[in-house]
Request: fold
Amino acid sequence: MTSLPSKTPGLACATALLALGACSDPSDLADRPDVLLISIDSVRADTLTFLDPETTPNLARLARRGTVFTQAVSGSSWTLPAHAQMFTGQPPAVHGVQKDDLRIDPATPTLSEVLSRGGWRTAGFWTGWYLSSEYGFGRGFDTYRNSMTVDPEANEDLKAALLERGDEADEALSLMRQVASHQDITSQQLVEDVLSELDALDRQAGAEPRFLFCHLFDPHYDYIPPAPFDTAFDPDYTGEMTGHGFWDNRLVFDPAQNPARQISDRDLEHVRALYRGELAWTDAALGRILDRLEADGRLANTLVIVTSDHGEEFFEHGDRGHRNTLYDEVLRVPLLIVPPGSAAGTAPRLCETQVTLSDLLPTALDYAGLDAGDDVFGRSLRPLVEGGTLPPRPAVSSLLVRFQSPGNAEYQYLLTQSVRTPTSKFLRMVTFEGERPRVRRFAQFDLESDPLEQRPRSDATRAQISALWEAFEDDLDPVRQAFEARARAPLAERVTRVRETFAGDLQDLGYLDGGTDEVATPPAWLMAPLPRLPLPDRL
Reply:
């Protein structure tokens, strides 16, 4: 299989990295910890609690050494912007990667780049195409490997063939769809690739610390866990519902019907059992990696972070999947942080302080002894991991989609914004008429009395709504300031060819909003946070 070294950032990025205080003396690295970042795709916080040894025995055992954050919030409800948030320490409204064909800004240092410059050996393994090098995630890795079940060398050849648009393009696209299919089962392949890489690292001289990134895609639909996990959590089911073709299954969801939901409560219960089976299968795979690191004597001095990019909808608000809304079923994610040198207790520490995926980069660099820099939006969670406190901070999330109204030939953009605290959620939906934003909806939810966000507050006076609106805008001001303060590369350096390569896959799997045409990249004015908006006369 092919390793994809990617350790030569552009000049602007290199300058920024040098300013982060990288280690130059190898002797300084002797006691620095390894860093292990595990991202399990599409996992809800109420499904992976780290307290359930029946579903996730390996992660439950690991959690007894660390801290479980019960109020961890993603910056969006789909894979690409959420992972960019992990790798940059910036929410999507700041890093700007909110469309399928945009990569991480070359002027923004990533976690792997900073650790690599600091002297860490770096290896990453991914199983979903939104984590490909084309999006900037490969930067800073000595090895960055596609662990889908088709050989990455063949995969690269297929992409090249497709981009050439030659006679073989149709065949290449067909095969590429197989590579990118949600029916792929990849955790086993990822484990084999990781263990092979660890073998190679063990053979190399030197005592450099290691950064290992593992992205596991199997809990993402389709829900097709291998035996015995396919029947483990619903052994008495006798119906015909399976997890195959979940997104397009009209027996699950039919947009032509009202209501669109077609699946019964019992069949939905079975689907959720299959989803849980996917997580159990993934936990079993991770157990092999954790066992290997422990056998090598490296786990004790490793900072371990386990999280997800977003959750999953099971019709809490009328739909399935993700990348639809910013409700808590897709924004709240599991998060476990195990510090180096920790000892196992009888149970993990539980921390109810609200945190975000922006906090992962500064936390990792804090434990590594490296400076995160001034333009990182997140903050180190080390004080919370070690029993201290941090002041409360709202979580800002956003979702940008492109749509076409019935009877309208032109595409529009819809921006959903949310500001969340542990007790309240504010949502605003904005469309655009040319460059002019138009507020379509503004809602507040009381998460203490209405944790499922079913009853938006409707009894507020105009004065109360005005106060809520101003508070919402005040919470968005730090995002605007962070965006203005950071260095930005020209737009041409941020646009990928991924849409051209993966258009068929994205469309087939419900991701490509607005078709396969080339008018995909949002205009520059939409790639910046919205300015403060006045409260509309009507909402």
The first strand starts at residue 34 and ends at 40. Residues 1-24, 170-175, 514-519 have pLDDT under 50 and may be disordered. The longest helix spans residues 265-295.
